[in-house]
Amino acid sequence: MEDLYLGWIEQLRKGLEQWGSVKVPGKYRLVFIAGMGGSGIVGDYVAALSNVKGSIPVLVSKSHLVPNFLSRDDLVFIVSYSGNTLETRIAYEKIAEKKSRIVIVSSNGLLESIATENNLPFIPIVKGIAPRTALPHMLYAILGVLDSSGYSIVSRDEAVDAYENLKNNMKEAVDKAYELSSFIDEHKGLPILATHTPFEALVVRGKNEFNENSKIPVKVEVAPEWMHNDIVGWEKPFENKYSAIIIRDPSDDVGSKLVDFMKKIYINNNIPIYELELHGKTFLEKLLYGSLVLGLASVKLARIRGVDPLVTENITLYKKDAP
Ligand code: F6R
Question: Does the C-beta of 315 come closer than 6 Å to ligand 1?
Answer without folding.
Answer: yes
